């Protein structure tokens, strides 16, 4: 997974963003940590959760990699979602489509103008807000732009949203910039500040020629002070050679985000590698958000770095792998923990963790893809009874001739019943177009009964 091109799979809007050279769905990131069940966005205010899908590499009007974003508006039970496809050529969207714009990259959402409708922010050569309203998304406002392309997919990277300065307005951040709210339709962000999570061509530490390159970012209140903090996983290069992995912590406060502090650096027995993708949530119910990471190196594992009053605690780390008691088989040699998502799938108030397992055998089918759901019990250990193995052959899943693609995974409440549904990508190598499936959450966990699957729409193919 490229540290810049791929957005991490997170979850609060369903987002299946089709990313990178595979043309596969990636899931939109949540605006906040998973301290409770995560609701899906409602762009049109109809009381049903909507899904966001984008293909930053998609062709628009013959232009390669111009990119687009699509929204599947929450369907009534038993119906197929109605979709809307938005490009830079859509009415009201600033600019016009060009080749290699990568419009739709790094989608993130929240109510930026406090009108009660969820708004969507997408990357390109700039960050653009698509405004929610009673008819869904319409119009757009450039959030920030610059001659050096600070908000582009390549130089800006992933986007996240949270209230970093505690003023009640949503802010948007990435590895190089943070835009503070309120955000208006005419004026954009109230102010923008530079941050340093992705150093690009200029070293962070001139003496050591140390370069940071961001893999993933997430938001949460890791120190329990009421301000949203920013967490990042980055790699370090020294003199052009790959180096250590970092877990970085940027504390939120009344003045906004502070400078990054390195919480973990390198892979040692007392400080294991943090992995490539992170999510947040208060797994042990102590009032501090914890960092949950997917580390697919070797046979793969999930790591939890617990929060405390000082932020993430590198002295308190839990690791779960395929040999941990309670993790359902079969074991795989590669592909475990390709993705991770945090949510409450059974509505018991304790956060659960879903783990993508890319090459598990499903029945007689070799190297299929599944999701392992680790049951939380409020202790933060993720070893409670009731872990599940979820795959395409589960009764009720309407897939024929294709499998899951668990690299693209989210947990969120799409029907607002207090339980998170599982949203998972589908295999793009089959004859069927790449897309996603939504599997309901119940008091007993994830089920295939009542699930539905939808292909990712393309410009000119909205329904």
TrEMBL record:
Transmembrane segments: none annotated. Pfam families: FG-GAP, FG-GAP_3. Keywords: Signal. It comes from the Bacteria. InterPro entries: FG-GAP, Integrin_alpha_N. This is Integrin-like protein. The lineage of its organism: Bacteria, Bacillati, Actinomycetota, Actinomycetes, Kitasatosporales.
């Amino acid at each position: 997974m490229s540290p810049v091109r791929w957005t991490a799979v997170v979850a609060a809007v369903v987002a299946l963003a089709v990313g990178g050279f595979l043309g596969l769905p990636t899931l939109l990131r949540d605006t906040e940590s998973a301290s409770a069940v995560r609701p899906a966005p409602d762009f049109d205010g109809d009381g049903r959760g909507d899904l966001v899908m984008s293909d930053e590499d998609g062709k628009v009007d013959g232009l390669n990699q111009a990119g687009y974003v699509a929204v599947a508006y929450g369907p009534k039970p038993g119906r197929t979602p109605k979709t809307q496809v938005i490009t830079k050529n859509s009415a009201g969207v600033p600019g016009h489509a060009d080749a290699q714009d990568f419009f739709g990259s790094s989608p993130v959402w929240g109510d930026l103008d406090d009108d009660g409708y969820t708004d969507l922010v997408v990357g390109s050569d700039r960050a653009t807000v698509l405004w929610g309203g009673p008819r869904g998304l319409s119009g757009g406002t450039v959030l920030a732009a610059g001659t050096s392309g600070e908000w582009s997919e390549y130089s800006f990277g992933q986007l996240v949203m949270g209230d970093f300065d505690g003023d009640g307005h949503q802010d948007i951040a990435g590895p190089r910039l943070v835009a503070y709210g309120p955000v208006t339709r005419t004026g954009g962000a109230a102010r923008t500040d530079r941050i340093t999570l992705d150093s690009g061509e200029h070293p962070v530490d001139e003496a050591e020629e140390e370069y940071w390159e961001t893999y993933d970012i997430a938001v949460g209140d890791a120190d329990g002070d009421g301000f949203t903090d920013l967490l990042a996983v980055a790699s370090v290069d020294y003199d052009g050679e790959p180096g250590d992995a970092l877990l970085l912590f940027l504390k939120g406060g009344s003045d906004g985000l502070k400078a990054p502090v390195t919480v973990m650096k390198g892979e040692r027995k007392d400080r294991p590698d943090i992995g490539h993708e992170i999510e947040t949530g208060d797994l042990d119910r102590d009032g501090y958000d914890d960092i949950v990471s997917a580390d697919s190196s070797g046979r793969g594992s999930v790591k939890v770095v617990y929060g405390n009053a000082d932020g993430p605690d590198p002295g308190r780390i839990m690791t779960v792998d395929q040999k941990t008691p309670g993790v359902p088989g079969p074991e795989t040699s590669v592909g475990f923990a390709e993705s991770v998502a945090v949510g409450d799938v059974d509505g018991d108030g304790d956060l659960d963790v879903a783990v993508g397992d890319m090459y598990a055998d499903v029945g007689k089918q070799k190297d299929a893809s599944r999701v392992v759901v680790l049951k939380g019990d409020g202790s933060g250990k993720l070893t409670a009874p009731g872990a599940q193995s979820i795959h395409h052959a589960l009764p009720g899943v309407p897939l024929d001739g294709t499998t899951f693609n668990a690299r693209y995974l989210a947990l969120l409440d799409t029907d607002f019943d207090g339980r998170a549904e599982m949203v998972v990508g589908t295999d793009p190598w089959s004859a069927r177009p790449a897309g996603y499936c939504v599997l309901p959450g119940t008091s007993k966990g994830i089920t295939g009964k009542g699930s539905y699957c939808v292909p990712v729409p393309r410009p000119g193919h909205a329904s």
